[in-house]
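To the structural biology subgroup,

Please find below the input and predicted structure for Intraflagellar transport 74, which we are adding to the shared reference set this quarter. The sequence is reproduced verbatim from the submission form. If anyone notices a discrepancy with their own records, reply to this email rather than editing the shared folder directly, so we keep one authoritative version.
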Amino acid sequence: MTSQRPPSSMGRPPSRSGSAAPGAGRPPTAVRPPLTAIRVPTAMVPGTSGYPGMRGGIPSPGVLAAPIKVTDRPVTQQGLSGMKTGIKGPQRQVLDKSYYLGLLRSKINELTTETSKLHKEIDNYNQENSVYLCYEKRAEDLAAEIKDLQGQLADHNMLVDKLNTNTEMEEIISDYSILKAQNDSEAQSIDNIFTERREREEQIKAIEEEIKKERQIADRVVQSMPAAKQEKYFSMAATNEQLLQELTVLQEKQDNLLTRVEDYEEELSHSQIKQEVVRLHEMLSVMETKRDAMEAEQKSMCSPKEEREKLFQQVKEDNQEIASMERQFIDPITSLTNRINPFMSLTNHMEFSSFNLPLLTKQINVNKSF
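Predicted structure (tokenized):
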């Protein structure tokens, strides 16, 4: 039993050159109405002919009554496609020398404009800087004038206080004399400092000139060196420069550390708890040192027998060293004694002769008298 499918009232779409039977085909794609724009009424039955805007008797709900030409829409081999809108206008087809020259001129104009802007900004900055310097100088002058006026005001206030307290004129004159002497002394000290500074500056200048001359001499000596020695000299100079830079960095680190130490010490001086912590830490360090020493001594300790042998050996070595030192001292002393003995005997003989000389002279005189 085979079921016969009822023929559809919508057949194949007609070709571009063919004709459609009334009520037998669907509208072509070019004139198909939008599906979501207008709702299809339910009372319209396919196959009814005679309505405007329909092709081949197929109703087209929502389509305008004006006829539409299918040929107005472009067609490709793959099917229909929409119209492509233009993205940009026509460009130069040949990028020749004139094109690049024009492009270069435009860039040069942009650079010139930017340079002029920068020059204008620089001029404005210089003008503002000059004005700022003038204002700064004027501010310094005004500050000095204010300081002078403050000093005068302090003097007048002090004078008014003296007058209000019924101070005697002699006392005021005495205070004035003391202050004037102190001021003169400080002025003399300032003059001496200024003179000393000028002398030091002259000495520094002379030393710099001397250093400059020595460097010129050193440069001439280096230029007269052979190539190998020059290379070695330049290598050592570069190493020296690097070491100086490292020394500068280390010096800065040392200064920073010293500053931190001073800050910590100042902070420590205001905190009893931190002082106690430091004291306990120092005590702990001392105890750890003692512990390490005791551990080392414990490790170095031997058995009693080994200690006795070690002690005997030490005593033996000490005795040998003492004997050697005695020999070293006795031999020179003996030699010196042997050399001194004749002189001592001669000295004794001379002393004896000088003691008995008057007696001998007297005896000789007595003998002559008889």
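Summary notes: The longest helix spans residues 97-164. The longest strand covers residues 75-76.

Regards,
Lab coordination
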